[in-house]
Amino acid sequence: MRAEPGKDYFELFGLPVAYDVDPADLTARYRALQGRVHPDRFAGASDTERRLSLQLTTLINEAFQVLKDPVRRGRYLLELRGVAMDDAGDTVVDPAFLAEQMELRERLEQLRAGPDPRRRLDELAGDLARRLQAKGDEFRGLYSRGEANRARTAVREMQFLDKLRREIEDLEAELT
């Protein structure tokens, strides 16, 4: 396992290029890579070696952040296949998905006003986790079949769901 600039993130971590990643294995590989190139190990080295160590550490950190997150990993897989994601221009146009988003957002807004917001927040978080899992499964299938445009749509929808997941986490923190 060697850290080299120019490798894709999967290659950097010695992993197959795939949507499914074992989180424990990824973390172990991350720690092993960091142990080899961390700047502290190169404190007495030349300026060039210290600079390279810092660059590799930054690359490894970025790769780890992308590979551990299913949404970012999906985007990255598409980018590796030459499918660009345009955050400003890509919109979800599926009316059923948009209606689902509106319903989920409405449920989130109603949480504060109603009784037992924590229980209802837990229910919404569980529902959202199931939807994110299903959308990830959909992406996996589309990606493996080479259906890039549909896989791109699935990732875009995952991004919307993930944004709502983060909003739920923020509300959980407020209620604590």
TrEMBL record:
Coiled coil: none annotated. InterPro entries: DnaJ_domain, HscB, HscB_C_sf, HscB_oligo_C, J_dom_sf. It comes from the Bacteria. The keyword Metal-binding does not apply. Keywords: Chaperone. GO terms for biological process: [2Fe-2S] cluster assembly; protein complex oligomerization; protein folding. Pfam families: HSCB_C (PF07743). One of its GO terms (molecular function) is ATPase activator activity. SMART domains: DnaJ. Residues 8-82 form the J domain. Interacts with HscA and stimulates its ATPase activity. HAMAP family: HscB. Belongs to the HscB family. Co-chaperone involved in the maturation of iron-sulfur cluster-containing proteins. Seems to help targeting proteins to be folded toward HscA. This is Co-chaperone protein HscB homolog. It comes from Candidatus Muproteobacteria bacterium RIFCSPHIGHO2_01_FULL_65_16.
